[in-house]
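Before we proceed, please read the two lines closing this message. Let me know whether the structure tokens fit the sequence:

…
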Amino acid sequence: MDGVTISGADGEPWAHLAPGDDFRVGRGGDGVDVDRSISASPYVSGHACTIVATEQSYWVENWARTGAVQLLDVASRSQIEVLPGVRRLSPFASAVVRLMTVEERPSGTDAQLHVGVGQVEFAVRCDVLAELETLAGRQPSDTQSWADEVLRKLRSVRKEGGRLDNVRQWYACLALCEPLLRDPAGGVVPSHAQIARRIAPLVDRETGTPIERRQGEPATSKTISKRLFAVRDRLHMVESIDGSSAGLGDTEAPTKLAHLLTSSGAITLADVEFYLRRSPSGEELDDVQD
């Protein structure tokens, strides 16, 4: 039976919706009825999001007071945002719906509360959107989307030949994107010096090799700039004149790269959580400037 299926991040089925049916998620409680309580955090709206099935797709409605609902395509890792107070019709057959949460926990010796950003995800699949029909006189194409191509090229930075230079480029990209992924609404792209300090103490999760030649000693801002430039060049984001590296001094380049990598889904919060280790004090990027 065609419809929309909703399940948890662990694959547990939550509901199957026929056209016209809806499914409400949020914190619940305080007289607010939801079909699924997704968090006990007081920072999550009682009614945060609703999925409404249609004949051909499904609406994603953001009922939260603040914070966008992110809709991520499973096939291409493309994503769209649904701002508070609006709804959008999903173009994705299989998608992950992501809601950001805020948690308070003790921090330091003064017992102040440290606010941390987390996320809750669930999956939505639309049977009608999943159906493919071949056009008359045409053969199905296996051409990948633009987002697929970005991800393939970025993965080549991480995988190609296993060279340490590529690993360093990968970690520089992770640190570049981390603030935007942890705080989509207010995250700021870090400086090269901040990126250098963030990755200096790290060890590669896959090889156990320190990222920098001397673990704990940050690379220079110029070195970080060259690493990000190499990634941009691989993604054809560099405009060269007569073969020169014209894009190396582009002050907006890091911001453009960060938004490309996060909006395409090439780097996700899950990647950041897996590869980047917090310091024992829980610190992340500091306020060092170039």
